[in-house]
Predict the structure.
Amino acid sequence: QVQLVESGGGLVQAGGSLRLSCAASGRIWSINAMGWYRQAPGKQRELVAIITSAESTNYADSVKGRFTISRDNAKNTVYLQMNNLKPEDTAVYYCNADRLRERITSAGMDYWGKGTLVTVSS
C-alpha cells in the first residue's frame, strides 16, 4: 500500500528556515509530479510548489524566492526548503503525489500525506 509521510514541520520564528521532507513508500512504478500544498485555519488548501519527474518546477507567487522544491526520484522523496518564513506561512503542509502508478500497467492515482504543521511566530 502506498503511503506518503511528511516530516520536518515545527515552530520557527519569522525570518527562520525549515526543511520539509516527504517520502513515498510501497509499490511504486512512477510518479508524474510531487508537490506541497498548505491549508491555514479557515482557508482553503492551496498549492505551494510542484515539481515534475523532469524536475520542472512551479511556485505560488507568495513563496517565490523564499521556498525551493526539490526531488530525489530514486528515493521517491520530495523536499521543500523554506527560508525567510513569515507568520502568514503558518499552515498544515501536505505532500501530494500526482498520478502515481504502482505498476507499469496501472492507472495513475493521486495520493496525499497526512500533513505536517508549520508555525511561524512573529
The first strand starts at residue 3 and ends at 7. The CA atoms of residues 38 and 93 lie 4 Å apart. The two ends are 40 Å apart (CA to CA). The chain is about 0% helix and 55% strand.
